[in-house]
Design goal:
The complex is a heterodimer. By secondary structure, chain A is of the alpha/beta class. Chain A has a single domain, classed as Methylmalonyl-CoA mutase (TIM Barrel, Alpha-Beta Barrel), CATH 3.20.20.240. Helices cover 49% and strands 7% of the residues of chain A. The longest helix of chain A is centred in the C-terminal third of the chain and has 23 residues. The radius of gyration of chain A is 23 Å and the shape is globular. Chain B is an alpha/beta fold. Chain B is 45% helix and 18% strand. Chain B is globular, with a radius of gyration of 13 Å. The chains are: A alpha/beta, B alpha/beta. At the A-B interface, helix 4 and helix 18 of A face helix 1 and helix 3 of B.
Chain lengths: 530, 135
């Protein structure tokens, strides 16, 4: 095909012009849109000194099998120079089932660490000082319960909650939209999230009670614009609910954090992060009347795109990940996870995860991209892409406003259908060869075997034995009492956190606590659209 | 005109990653098949009952969580119990080579691993059903 006939687009399908020059940025007012980093609307970053002041946090998401084994991996990663922890939980934990529940069969420890009780959480952080290490936890529907366990472990270590720093993912809206690990219907779930935001504003001033996530939306097949728009609109939904609870915007907004995907289209991704900061800053100031700059500054974690990793020629994934990580850094990320080369197959092995961490260290200490903030700022192409991404995301945000907000849009199936259509379009492009995936639909070669992490059923047996012993050992009368109190609190409108803490302290299990909440809130079933 | 092939696309286990299942369901429908998508978190019992009620020739199971060795044999067993062993079971998702071989020995017609093309899935189903269909 001749170049003149071929359509050039970003990976999300946004058309690219043959050349960008001064006319591309005519609409930009330098003082309004592109002031120095650290100034509203923070297009160029949230700090003037950026990575000179402090590098991003290198935070590898990890967890597998038993809490004992995951704890060993954490000690290893910290010894390798990782600067924060990020907990992956297994599917039963994410769905609020204990390891001995029939639905947990075959799933215990497979996708993350199995945590059924406070006892497991104590083991997970054994020898790790929670006052010094920041911890991120990828848990959503039962996030309040796991957070209560974490807070109690901190208490046992003698660490003041005021000093605790870390992040709870706790973003239930993107579960309905994309990842689909939900338990309760949207409205009671939003109430639980609001409970944690309110509790955090009072008791854990340095902890992010939520990480509003576009990562999973993108992994489900959305475009970059959809990822951006749905995530920011989710953020506004949480703000609306917290304000309705009576919280003042500047009392909780500074602790809202974000989590974006770092996908393969280099410039599109950098534009996405820049547009995200702009839209959020303006929404905080103009839509919600925030006064504090800290409320307006969008802070984000990035993870390279798992869905871009290929099963074929897995070593190519190291290169993909390095480029994606560089986009996140040039986009001003506050923390970063780089995927391991073996993750199209399994949870990463120790060798692969070390290489992934080294990738970040090479970027940080050798590439030179950290020396000055937003080094690509002023590029005609990047600035135009930032403007277009912002405008397209705002269109979506306004559409969702008109539908009555994100909960209403989810109930109508709107974001779900938009994402499914985008993912199908993309797959068709791969199928037709319009999009090249190296090693998959072009440049194929025979497989290179790699070593894989295997998780067998030994972990499940170990977890079930521990649970049986715990159920026999604890004061079951106290467990019942705290669960009854929790149910009464859930039926009312007060904050559930104090009751969750009581239940956790009595060693009520995750499954028992979630069953109490299921009894009050009911469960959610989505209508599946194809 | 021959009857269209009927396929049940199912998502067993606790995993919610349904991107692949939905893309496959749509591709099979676009290829002229009648597709029933079960939605998420279906037990083997629910899947086999749906296959019986919908009178499908093919069940497609999408599993990304590593739970295939627990789930797939149970589906095959229930199909045999209900005298539905002629229903072809295909599996898509993250299934390592040695597990894929073991599942095929137990009666799975095909396992499609990441990177498999939509065309390959469509052609396999057409061929496989064409061969066994009483017509």
């Amino acid at each position: 095909m001749k170049a003149a006939e071929r359509q050039f687009t970003t990976i999300s399908g946004v058309p690219i012009e043959p050349l960008y020059g001064p006319e591309a940025i005519e609409g930009i007012d330098l003082s309004r849109d592109l002031p120095p980093p650290g100034e509203f609307p923070y297009t160029r970053g949230i700090h003037l000194d950026m990575y000179r002041g402090k590098l991003w946090t290198m935070r590898q998401f990890s967890g597998y099998a038993t809490p004992e084994e995951t704890n060993r991996r954490y000690h290893y990663l910290l010894a390798q120079g990782q600067t924060g922890l990020s907990v992956a939980f297994d599917l039963p934990t994410l769905m609020g089932y204990d390891a001995d529940h029939p639905l947990s069969e075959g799933e215990v420890g497979k996708c993350g660490a199995a945590i059924s009780s406070l006892e497991d959480m104590e083991i997970l952080f054994r020898g790790i000082p929670l006052g010094d290490v920041t911890v991120s936890m990828t848990i959503n529907s039962p996030a309040a319960v796991l957070w209560a366990m974490y807070l109690v472990v901190a208490e046992q270590q003698g660490v003041d909650w005021q000093r605790l720093s870390g992040t709870l993912q706790n973003d239930i809206l993107k579960e309905y939209i994309a990842q689909k690990e939900y338990i309760f219907p949207p409205r009671p779930s939003m109430r639980l999230v609001t409970d944690t935001i309110e509790f955090g504003a009072r008791h854990t001033p340095r902890f992010n009670p939520i990480s509003i996530s576009g990562y999973h939306i993108r992994e489900a097949g959305s475009t970059a614009v959809q990822e951006l728009a749905f995530t920011l609109r989710d953020g506004m939904e949480y703000v609306d609910w917290a304000r309705e609870r009576g919280l003042a915007i500047d009392d909780f907004a500074p602790r809202l954090s974000f989590f974006f995907n770092a996908h393969s289209d280099f410039f599109e991704e950098i534009a996405k992060y820049r547009a995200a900061r702009k839209i959020w800053a303006r929404a905080m100031r103009d839509r919600y009347g925030a006064q504090s700059e800290r409320s307006m500054k969008l802070r984000f974690h990035a993870q390279t795109a798992g869905c871009s990793l290929t099963w074929q020629q897995p070593y190519n994934n190291v290169v993909r990940t390095a480029l994606q990580a560089m986009a996140a850094v040039l986009g001003g990320a506050q923390s970063l996870h780089t995927n391991s080369l073996d993750e199209a197959y399994a949870l990463p092995g120790e060798h692969a995860v070390t290489l992934a961490l080294r990738t970040q260290q090479v970027l940080a200490y050798e590439s030179g991209v950290t020396h000055t903030p937003d080094p690509l700022g002023g590029s005609y192409f990047l600035e135009k892409l930032t403007l277009d991404t912002e405008a397209a995301a705002n269109d979506y945000i306004h559409r969702i406003d008109r539908m009555g907000g994100m909960v209403a849009a989810i109930e109508a199936g709107f974001p779900q259908t938009e994402i499914a259509a985008a993912s199908y379009r993309y797959q068709r492009e791969v199928e037709s060869g319009e999009r090249t995936i190296v090693g998959v639909n072009r440049f194929q070669s025979d497989g290179q075997p790699i070593e894989l992490l295997q998780i067998d059923e030994t972990s499940a047996r170990h977890q079930r034995q521990k649970l049986a012993a715990l159920r026999a050992r604890r004061d079951n009368g106290q467990v019942r009492k705290t669960l009854d109190a929790l149910e009464r609190a859930a039926e009312g409108t007060g904050n559930t956190m104090p009751h969750l803490l009581d239940a956790v302290r009595a060693y009520a299990t995750l499954g028992e606590i979630c069953d109490s909440l299921r009894a009050v809130f009911g469960t959610y079933q989505e209508t599946a659209h194809i | 005109m021959p009857h269209p092939i009927r396929v049940l696309v199912a998502k067993p286990g606790l995993d919610g990653h349904d991107r692949g299942a939905k893309v496959i369901a749509r591709a099979l429908r676009d290829a002229g098949m009648e597709v029933i998508y079960t939605g998420l978190r279906q037990s083997p019992e629910m899947i086999v009952n749906a296959a019986l009620q919908e009178d499908v020739q093919v069940i497609g199971l999408s599993i990304l969580s590593g739970a295939h060795n627990a789930i797939v044999p149970r589906v095959l067993e229930l199909l045999r119990e209900k005298d539905m062993a002629d229903v072809r079971v295909i599996v898509g998702g993250i299934v390592p080579d040695q597990d894929a071989e073991a599942l095929k020995r137990q009666g799975v017609a095909a396992v499609f691993q990441p990177g498999a093309s939509l065309d390959a899935v469509v052609s396999f189903i057409r061929q496989s059903v064409g061969k066994h269909s009483p017509g």
